[in-house]
Amino acid sequence: MIEVLVALAIVAITLAAGSRAAETVLRNGDRFADVTLAQWCADNTLVGLRFAQQLPGIGRSEQGCEQLGQAYTVQLNVQSTPNPSFRRVDVRVLDAEQAPVVSVSAVLGRP
């Protein structure tokens, strides 16, 4: 009888550890999907600036972005550089709770 109780205790501990591991895997999968969608928003913003065929204006702006039903806020910060033919662009993507998800920086040149 004691052997059965010990075996049940070992099985219970193993199942508890397994469920925690599965929960971690699911949480990491959700985080990966969130970061991927936010990265798409940042990439789309930078590509749009490149396609504009002109240097972006210096300053800060904010716009919305939706990817696969998820709403994100894209914050754009454009700064001058020592070379007037280039601009530094910082893109920051926030989730629905306004928590930062992805930040990307790039230097855009005059077309």
What's the structural domain tally? 1
The CATH level-2 architecture is identified as 2-Layer Sandwich
Class by alpha and beta content: alpha+beta
Helix-strand pattern, N to C?
A: HEEEE
- The whole-angstrom Rg is 23 Å
Strand order of the main beta sheet, please?
A: 1-2-3-4
User: What number is the mean pLDDT?
Assistant: 89
Shape: rod-shaped
CATH first level: which class?
Alpha Beta
Distance between the termini: 81 Å
Structure in a nutshell:
This protein has one helix at residues 2-51; strands spanning 59-67, 70-80, 86-94, 100-109. With 111 residues, it is of the alpha+beta class.
Structure, described:
The chain has 111 residues and is α+β, with helices and mostly antiparallel strands. It has one domain (1-109): GSPII I/J protein-like (Pantoate--beta-alanine Ligase, Chain: A,domain 2, 2-Layer Sandwich), CATH 3.30.1300.30. 45% of the residues lie in helices and 35% in strands. The chain contains 1 helix and 4 strands; from the N terminus they run H-E-E-E-E. The protein has one helix spanning 2-51; strands at residues 59-67, 70-80, 86-94, 100-109. A 4-stranded antiparallel beta sheet has the order 1-2-3-4, with helices on one face. A hairpin with a 5-residue loop joins strand 3 and strand 4. The radius of gyration is 23 Å and the shape is rod-shaped. The model has no long low-confidence stretch (mean pLDDT 89). Residues 34-108 form the Type II secretion system protein GspI C-terminal domain. Component of the type II secretion system required for the energy-dependent secretion of extracellular factors such as proteases and toxins from the periplasm.
